[in-house]
Amino acid sequence: MGQTLARWCYYLNFQLKKLxxxxxxxxxxxxxxxxxxxxxxxxxxxxWDGTFDKDILxxxxxxxxxxxxxxxxxxxxxxxxxxxxxETAEKYFMVGYKVNYYVFTDRPADVPKIPLQExxxxxxxxxxxxxxxxxxxxxxxxxxxxxxxxxxxQEVDYLACMDVDMKFSDHLGVEILSNLFGTLHPGFYGAxxxxxxxxxxxxxxxxxPKGKGDFYYAGGFFGGKVQQVYEMTKACHEAMSIDKSNGIxxxxxxxxxxxxxxxxxxxxxxxxxxxxxxxxxLGRPAFxxxxxxxxxxxxxxxxxxx
Length: 306
Ligand code: UDP
Ligand code: MN
What we know:
One of its GO terms (biological process) is carbohydrate metabolic process. It is found in: Membrane. The protein is α/β, with parallel strands linked by helices. It has one domain (about 45-305): Spore Coat Polysaccharide Biosynthesis Protein SpsA, Chain A. It has helices at about 1-20, 25-30, 55-60, 80-90, 135-155, 225-245, 255-265, 280, 300-305, and strands at about 45, 65-75, 100-105, 120-125, 160, 165-170, 180-185, 215-225, 270, 295. β2 (about 65-75), α4 and β3 (about 100-105) form a beta-alpha-beta unit. α6 (about 225-245) crosses α7 (about 255-265). Manganese (II) ion binds next to loops.
């Protein structure tokens, strides 16, 4: 009898000790955020500050020896955004990991030379331009899918495909990595589904009927493993080509086709608006503890179609 009691006491003490010695990383489990959604209806994580532990992720990723590719387009006047984009990326984007910046441009001489950390390089890919800014934006899907076989499959494990009229302003690391990820569009975070600016004309390949759709994703930041990004960008380009041959262009260009694809192929991770924000336009609501990738003010008349 006495012995059983002693064993129970020992066991309880042992369990209590385990609780007291929980690693700091378990804080997030006990202080779960309740101000924001943390999971999609298909159980993909929505990434926010307070939902991941950098140190654990570092341990998990360090041995995998991965390389991350970042595709960014700087065509015509948009080359002016490259310096700040790359400088801030060196400070905040995937610090400690191997990164290939793929700069797609028609003005290779204007790609700034900036000092890079070890294991990181800029690869300039010379591409054609288009007269309309909408065509430049849309043809990104085609160009990304085209360069998968020439570069990405051999050179990187993951791709992050990002707008250039932006800068990094806080940690943006491996917590985003997954087979296929999209980012919540800051202008539609918390908005009702019926207000999402999906393409509503049934004739378009990007059509999403009223009452359907999960989130409104931003065209300015998506990615995943090279295979998944290849499949997505190829499908979006094909959908655009079909529309073009039928004389129709989706209301928000590449973003509309991206939204259709991610509606049909659910992303395995969703990035919160910490990962794409515009403070000028939207201020700084309390649920945003971090601003990681933010819009740089641009004068549309000065920059577009130039
Ligand atoms: N872009 C470019 N040159 C142009 C127009 C667009 O390089 O003349 C690229 C650039 O990477 C830009 C992206 O396409 O960030 C999307 O266009 P924009 O940022 O103007 O769209 P918005 O974010 O305002 O919807
Ligand atoms: Mn942009």
